[in-house]
Design a protein that fits this description.
elongated
């Protein structure tokens, strides 16, 4: 992996030097300008390939070996310390709301049960005769 990264770095450096030579030759109107431009274009393709090879190889290695970006232990401890009071405040704030919602649901269930019970006991005489 390191050899590929060094190789990519050297290829990119050579490509940049070729580019500078091509620019200077073009400004000086020297016959070497055209061959340098052609070789710079070819080197750019090779350099792009080398850098992509290193980048993709590193990404594949990270996926296979499970390397995850995590904060340092100190940052993790600080984040947990900040989150604890917020969680406690949220729990305390939600407790009365949860109790009220539970009481409302119980009340609704009780009323529905009473309504069903009332309907069963107060059938019309016509329905009772049909039985």
């Amino acid at each position: 992996m390191r050899a590929a990264a060094v190789r990519a770095l050297v290829i990119v450096a050579v490509t940049l030097v070729q580019l500078m030579i091509a620019v200077f030759c073009s400004l000086a109107e020297v016959w070497l300008a055209f061959p340098m431009v052609i070789s710079t274009v070819a080197s750019t393709v090779v350099a792009t390939w080398a850098v992509l090879d290193v980048w993709i190889t590193r990404q594949v290695w990270r996926q296979r070996h499970g390397v995850f970006s995590e904060p340092s232990s100190v940052a993790r401890e600080r984040a947990l310390a900040r989150a604890r009071p917020r969680q406690q405040q949220a729990t305390q704030a939600q407790a009365p709301q949860a109790q009220a919602a539970h009481a409302q649901a119980r009340h609704t269930q009780t009323r529905q049960h009473q309504a069903r019970h009332t309907q069963r006991n107060h059938r019309s005489p016509r329905n009772q005769r049909a039985r």
